[in-house]
Design goal:
Oaf, single chain, Out at first protein homolog, Oaf_C, mainly beta, OAF_N, 46% strand, 3 helices
Length: 250
């Protein structure tokens, strides 16, 4: 491999409600990671960091607080899950991306649908760097609200990650009286919260074209990207509904 490349790309993206937002995509081929960041229609700042080296992806949401209801200025959440190889293009390919028309408003070619994840384990912030060095920077504001899944924990434990950073959270099935926050009338009682976020446009696959040389030999080469849109809903335990005021029946 050549020298490590760091690059940033800014892309204009259309949100479901029709608004246009600017998305920032960053790649660091030396650290083998990529990140993308966009502001959702409700004002939340959503970031995805993909750490290819550790096979970890980190979603962070900075959600504007409801000051008139006693919340702080913003609330930070981090959701950490296993990164699969075919989810997003490699860091060195992302670092090479350029766009001819920066004013173009982009929409994804492929809609990958919604994934519903039950985040049943808490991650200890001070130990999280062993899982991915990026947790320390990305989740600094969410140190009390970093969640993952038992099935992903099993995968990382097999890779030799220290299990003491994980703590299994109470589940609705363990505690039958634990309601969904949207149905919980008491703002100070524990409940299962739901948070949804959507990545409206990201480079999910490389496109390959074929060429034939003078001798008739066919070879393939990278000739572009395919873009995807994907949504995620995370369910997780909160000690009081006050930490989940967006999840209410409308």
């Amino acid at each position: 491999p050549g020298p490590a490349a760091r690059a940033e790309l800014r892309v204009r993206v259309r949100l479901p409600g029709g608004q246009v937002t600017e998305e920032s995509l960053q790649a660091d081929s030396g650290a083998d990671c990529v990140s993308l960041e966009l502001r959702a229609a409700d004002g939340a700042l959503v970031t995805l960091t993909a750490d290819f080296r550790q096979e970890v992806k980190i979603f962070r949401a900075l959600i504007l607080g409801e000051l008139e209801r006693g919340q702080s200025q913003f609330q930070a959440l981090c959701f950490v899950t296993r990164l699969h190889r075919n989810e997003i293009i490699p860091s060195e390919s992302m670092a090479k991306l350029r766009q001819k028309n920066p004013r173009t408003v982009r929409q994804a070619e492929e809609v990958r649908g919604w994934e519903h994840l039950s985040m049943d384990v808490a991650v200890n912030f001070s130990k999280g760097a062993q899982l991915s060095s990026h947790i320390h920077n990305v989740c600094a504001e969410a140190r009390e609200a970093i969640y993952t899944r038992e099935e992903d924990v099993k995968f990382w434990l097999e890779k030799g990650v220290d299990g003491s950073m994980f703590e299994v959270l109470p589940q609705g099935s363990d505690v039958p009286e634990l309601p969904r926050c949207r149905r919980c009338p008491d703002r100070w009682k524990p409940c299962i919260c739901s948070y949804s976020l959507s990545l409206e446009w990201y480079p999910c696959m490389l496109k390959y074209c074929r060429s034939r040389d003078a001798g008739g030999k066919v070879s393939s080469y990278k000739c572009g990207i395919r873009s995807c849109q994907k949504g995620y809903t995370f369910d997780y335990y909160v000690p009081q509904k006050q930490l989940c005021l967006w999840d209410e029946e409308t």
